[in-house]
Amino acid sequence: MLSALQIEGGYPLLGQVRVSGAKNAGLVLMAASILAEGEVILDNLPRIRDVEIMDKILNDIGVTTHWRPDGSLSICPPNSSLKTKTSYELAKMLRASNLFLGAMLGRQKEAIISLPGGCDIGSRPMDLHIKGVQALGSEIQIEHGYIYANAKNPTGASVYLDFPSVGATENIIMMAAKAKGTTIIENSAKEPEIVDLANFLNSMGARIRGAGTDVIKIEGVDELIGGRYSIIPDRIEAGTFMIAAAITKGEILIENVIPTHLHPVIAKLQETGALVENTDSGLIVKAGQAINPIDIKTLPYPGFPTDMQSQMMALLCLAEGPSVIVENVFENRFQIVDELKRMGAKIKVEGHTAVVEGVDYLHGTTVKATDLRAGAALILAALAAEGETKIEDAIHIFRGYENVREKLTNLGAKVS
Ligand code: UD1
Fold it and tell me: pLDDT tens digit string along 288-336?
């Protein structure tokens, strides 16, 4: 497995790129597949490291899976019970392993979930997930790094989320899909990945309404029947390539995108001066004459996504003036700042706010990917920088970006 990327900067990215399936939708659909009777086939699932780990977790708990020749993943939950406990060794590698809480409670009323790992982007508590599954009848104990959950009689209930957590909304939906009666989630997350989960479960016989709004209503059913489903395109990968066009003074046609999922990113990119055109073949993004400084606040969907904040910071490092970025979702997202500074960026951080002074150029050096999106941002900075950049710990990038080296090379980047 590659552990570093070497990039020679200064080449405009030109051409077209096809966006892969959404990591965050793929991961939750893989967990939700255990709710089905019979085989589930997932199309458009990206072959990335996080998906491979999720696949291993499925195998470890007793689910048979295999990649089919057409690139889809077949998931066959057995008729018998699954192992209830997720392995610490696997769960520590992947935050989304926590999605087995709702999926297992929905399937077999019991779950022992290792407290998850994943990106080091801030404290990632599970209080809202627990509050949700408790409301639906689970007894919870947290001991020795595991959540022990038991629901003798899962029953629908009303749950108000203090914050529209993506993972908590997903866990509650999965448990509620097969609970007795009706569940109402208020202040639910509205991300496109939540809609994809609801569409997937509904395609198997679930009764979920309101996904994509802040009130979701789920009427539990006795049985969900497996089937075939195609995952939505990855809006964060699309956004990353959009910024690649803008930062390298290039022009890229981005295929396989749903533009409505990218509204906040498109709007902010246009404010920086980039040109974005929605065509039948995809989004064409062309760099503007200059990069205008802008202000950004990350918020739950449909606000500006926290998963695009680092990449936008890379772009604003080269803007003609100061920009202000406020991170409202994850407190450690500014770990990237020290790495960008090594490349010549001028950034000051105070609490949740970063002030990015524009500089005329960035220069190549050795930097470290501290998390997945920081890694993506370093690729962008390196593509625009003078000279060569070595990005260490690039394994973080491979967690979430499929064939990133090939895709960049096809656009004219010099990456090894
Ligand atoms: C998901 C995404 C991640 C994205 C994030 C926000 C997956 C696999 N990951 O992560 O890429 O950055 O949504 O869009 O889909 N919180 C609590 N208590 C909880 C749960 C969350 O306080 O019980 C807080 C978190 O600390 C964080 C905020 O809520 O500050 C958002 O977290 P959440 O929406 O749950 O993100 P994830 O589902 O972990």
Answer: 999 999 999 999 999 999 999 999 999 999 999 999 999 999 888 899 9
Do the domains 4-20+233-415 and 23-230 sit in the same CATH topology, yes or no? yes
Radius of gyration of the CA atoms of the chain, in A: 21
Secondary structure E strands in 110-227 = 110-114, 139-143, 146-150, 158-160, 182-186, 207-209, 215-219
- Hey, what CATH class is 23-230 in? alpha beta
| Residue 408 CA to its chain's centroid (Å) | 20
Ligand 1 near 298 CB (within 6 A): no
Which residue CA neighbors atom 15 of ligand 1 most closely? 24
Q: Give the separation between CA 255 and CA 271, rounded to whole angstroms.
A: 22
**How far is Cα 200 from Cα 103, in angstroms, rounded to an integer?**
14
How far is 216 from 187, CA to CA, in rounded Å? 9
pTM (predicted TM-score) = 0.96
Cα–Cα distance for residue pair 55/130, rounded to 1 Å: 24
| Residue pLDDT, tens place only, 122-148 | 556 899 999 999 999 999 999 888 999
| Distance set, CA 98 to CA 41, 88, 200, 324 (Å) | 22, 11, 19, 33
Beta carbon of 307 within 6 Å of any ligand 1 atom: yes
Under a CB-based contact definition with an 8 Å cutoff, are residues 72 and 45 in contact? yes
Give the closest residue (by CA) to ligand 1 atom 9: 24
DSSP H helical segments within 231-358, as ranges? 235-247, 263-271, 309-316, 336-342
Cβ neighbours, 10 Å, residue 344: 18
Site to probe by mutation for ligand 1, drawn from 93, 166, 169, 332 as the one with most ligand atoms within 8 Å of Cβ, is 166
- What ranges do the domains of the chain cover? 4-20+233-415, 23-230
The answer to whether residue 119 is catalytic is yes
CA angle 375, 326, 323 (to 5 degrees): 85
Q: Is 166 in the pocket of ligand 1 (CB under 6 A)?
A: yes
> Does domain 4-20+233-415 correspond to CATH entry 3.30.310.50?
no
Nearest CA to ligand 1 atom 13: 166
